[in-house]
Amino acid sequence: MNTTLTRSLALSVLALSAVGLTGCVTSGSAVGADSGGSLAELSSDETVEIVFESYNLNSAGPWTEAIEGLIAAFEKEHPNITVTGQGVDTANIVSSIQQQVLAGSPPDVGQLGFGQLDFAQTDLQAANLTELVGQEALDEHFGGDYPFHERARVLADIDGSATGLPYVFSTPVLWINETVLESAGIDPATADYSTWDSVSALAEQVTAKTGNPSINVPCIVTGGSWCMQGLFFSNGADVLSDDRSTIEFGSAEAIDTVEVFQGMYAGGILSNEEEMTQYESFSRGDTAAFQLTTSALQSSFMQGADANGWTLSTSEMPQFGEQEAQPTNSGSALVMFAQDPKKRAAAWEFMKFMTSAEAYEVITTQIGYLPLRKTMTEEGGPLYDWVQANPLVQPNLDQLDRLVATKAYPGDQFQEVDRLLDVAIQDAIFQGKDAADTLPEAAERAQALIEK
């Protein structure tokens, strides 16, 4: 899809607010044991204070404004519950919660990445929601007028139990600078973005014109492991066996995937920059024609295109040859760490509100994350008009139907496993090392870590 960006569209997205939100739960509706769970009830005359730790609250801007607006809306609907939001850097959220758990005062609700959920359950005392609130209550929450997409509702499950509620996420989409393409003599409306071969051919034409790399793929640098899993899956590879016992990123298919990008770099069309530098340079419209990255950057790229005078469009994640692309998800789940029965009841109400249809109206329009209740975007739904006015989101919505969940490595060394894979990929692509050596070696070391 190719869509011309207009200034009015960008401003209209930022102008949307949480005014007029109405919640879908009441302060006395906590689930009782009769639904199969063991959650205490919270009456409307009992006051409770809970803490919500979130990386979306870590910096000023649309993300923080959106979440603070939702907290205020929740408190208005639940006057007996006060929510204190505290921000934390994405990279430090696990260590932050771990320190608070050890100190005996964890946040009542935390926003954790999907790859961190196994550790949250085994080491951070996260509540098992299936046991706490019961499957009936989970099914009721995931249903309603705008039910959770079937591929989204299980993303926070570990071994068949809900460790959290899927909250916000995006898929990797191909962002396109149409102005750069046009300067290289390419018509963006007829260009083929469907495969990595066709995108590479376009990039070669752009690089021949500019003399600079024209493809950014933050998935292959540190911090892009969630997206890199999607590239592996799309080429027939995997990172972890289904029974979560065996590391699999040393396979021939994984090696082949890395070699595709190794060839792009050797050919001069793939950039070698840190993740944040890639975001910033693409937003400025410097030289890159393509960037494969999270759809959550939509607002930032729209503002960048508007400010710097270039045209932005999107397409779905390119595929390898004839194999259908298998997009993965970034993002997070809401995880309960509260231990006090009343705080748990209040936390459950807050978690339900933050994953309600009302919340996704704000989360989708102000931040750019997918509405996990996808039917909200269909005709008659509260997000239908917004999607029609913002066609940049369509590839992200379409990819939800074939989403493959990112995998969480077991054990307390899950972050080291990610680091080993990151280093192996970058050594092969940017340092010229043999992927057939680096990936199997990294996989062997990672296997030893998950077996500890």
TrEMBL record:
Coiled coil (residue ranges): none
Keywords, alphabetical: Signal
Keyword Lipoprotein: no
InterPro entries: Bact_solute-bd_prot1 (IPR050490), SBP (IPR006059)
SUPFAM superfamilies, alphabetized: Periplasmic binding protein-like II (SSF53850)
Residues making up the signal peptide according to the UniProt record: 1-32
Keyword field contains Cell wall biogenesis/degradation: no
Protein name as it appears in the record: ABC transporter substrate-binding protein
Organism from which the protein derives: Microbacterium nanhaiense
